[in-house]
# Entry
Amino acid sequence: MIEFFLNGHRQRLAAAPDSSVLALLRDRLAACGTKEGCASGDCGACTVVVAEPDDDRDALSYRTTNACITPAHQLQGCHLITVEGLARGDALHPAQAAMVACHGSQCGFCTPGIVMSLFALHEQQRAEPSRALDGHRLEAALGGNLCRCTGYRPIRDAALSMATHADTRPSWADDPTLDEQVRALPRRSADSRYLTPASLAELAQAMQAYPSAPLVAGATDLWLEATQRLTAYERVIDLRRVAELRRIEETADGWWIGAAVTYREWEPLLAAHYPAFAHLLTRLGSAQIRNRGTLGGNIANASPVGDTPPVLLTLDARVRLASAEGIRELALDEFFLDYKQTALQPGECVAAIFLPRPEAGVEQRVWKLSKRREDDISTLLGAFRWRIDGGGHLRDVRIAYGGMAAIPLRVPAAEAALEGKADLDAAFDAAKRALRHTLTPMSDVRGSSSYRMTAAVNLLERWRLTLARPEPVDPTQEVALDAYAH
Ligand SMILES: Cc1cc2nc3c(=O)[nH]c(=O)nc-3n(C[C@H](O)[C@H](O)[C@H](O)COP(=O)(O)OP(=O)(O)OC[C@H]3O[C@@H](n4cnc5c(N)ncnc54)[C@H](O)[C@@H]3O)c2cc1C
Ligand code: FES
Ligand code: FES
# Structure
């Protein structure tokens, strides 16, 4: 049984462990306002808002999610808000009224998802009215909603004019006890086919008892197996309630980031210490994806084009693996073995990832090339870390790429060509030659092998030019993240 609230009404219903929120809405609850476009988290047509109790706060947080790839059982103990739940009788919510007034609904199919993203934005604005609704926030809120008829202008106008419409609240918002009722629901599933262990010990037990059951965190990779490949899961082990996986532990040397911490939760720490890395997160998926996707999922998924592994490799990150046998630690570059193969043993999970504290003088650049700026997987990602000593020599050089091999990897030959060098032109020429000799990139739909090699070499050149500039550039202001592959 899944117990949750839908637009203010309590629900209690059974569902298969591999059901999605979208299937639950459309097939079981006859709530067909939420549409299916791509069934892969890309288009945003299925966007809904899930309000759930934060681990450390009393208030419920309202966040967008892609219903097509959200496990139905992750609604346990939550309040689900759909496009049917916004208007108050005939009075439209400002997100809807603005879309009507600005002719933002063109095809109509993507409209419910866009309205839900605008609803979430409006709720954020209500909570923090003094925060400017600038272009960056607008893009972050709507980046996961595609309009294929290219009519973004009226949608953007609608977003910017929501505040000029009557602030109609949904009827469910009248109930002052609703948040309390949601929080009173159990957070763990009572369904033996959808396990929600609460501690590492319980998780280890579950993995041992059901070795073939997939682990799921945000489901932003795993659930595509169900929607795109029609893989059926008889039993699933959910990591989102495991306390040890949900925390960020600070030490003198850095931070252990729990594997089930979401990008949204992790971003403030990065913004404070690694601005270039934090900027990358603004280009990782969409708000819907970042609200649920986790660092542990990105690493365990071991995609050659996952965004965080190359960056973490340049930072000498470590992983903590856990099983019934105990805990072990590995350097991240020992974790990726071959295409989609990792050092994880059966019954073992990623428990946390160690992010070292930045050392004084160390600099970092991260450049992602993708076909689309928003909500797109990398064609190629280059991550670079270095410092310059008193004599002008490059030191502690780290170079890592995603999209250049079957796994994300460092390029020691190119690093050696730069390490300790002060004559940068000659050293970078040598590093480019080393890169060409060492790697044979893959060809796929995102880019040919020759495109990838040319682009990887060009990123080295971009780095050289960055070093040659007399004035340092704020890594968060660089335009390369917005570059497009072709
Ligand atoms: C529309 C869309 C856009 C995306 N854009 C990007 C992008 O720009 N960059 C990018 O890098 N990725 C992107 N992704 C991929 C995905 O969002 C990320 O890889 C995300 O970090 C996965 O985390 P998750 O918690 O959702 O993983 P899940 O889907 O829950 O799990 C992924 C895999 O890892 C396993 N797993 C999860 N956690 C653990 C653990 N702790 N220990 C062991 N195994 C585990 C699962 O069994 C599964 O096999 C995108 C996905 C979608 C759908
Ligand atoms: S249907 Fe396209 S994101 Fe869900
Ligand atoms: S309004 Fe739906 S695709 Fe543009």
The pocket of flavin-adenine dinucleotide (ligand 1) is lined by residues 40-42, 214-222, 239, 259, 284-285, 289, 292-294, 296-298, 300-301, 306-307, 344, 349-350, 375, 377 (CB under 6 Å).
